[in-house]
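The record is kept unedited without comment:

——
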Amino acid sequence: MARTKAAMQGKAKRAEIGFKKKGSTEAGPAGTDIVKLRKPIRWKSGTVALRQIRKLQGSTRRLIPKASIFRLISEIVQAQSLDLGCSVTQVSPKARDALWTECEAYLQEVFKATQAVSVMRGGITITPKDMKHVRQENEAKVAVFRNFA
């Protein structure tokens, strides 16, 4: 393989990054150490994403962190209690867990619908445009139910 300018520049970039193994030095001229560099691993497209999907599907842990969802719930409760004119400062743990579970279920449904919209338009990756379309569909469904009530 002929050495090209681009190939040599790629090697120079790797040298600047400085990937090295422990203890991989050798003595250079005048007692200086030369670091042996190794090429960084480049996975094929989608490999890392599939690995993360398998990891998340195999786990039973929550998708939304506990502290952030509890903070959000308390902010919403405080805002609603001010609007209603009552003072609710605490939410029971069972109610928090129920809200947490429903939030995650709702987000999963939204992402599934968004993925379906993305596939229907011929794409692979979901976009904000797909999310906006799903949100508009959900608002239309809610409006239909409000008309019946």
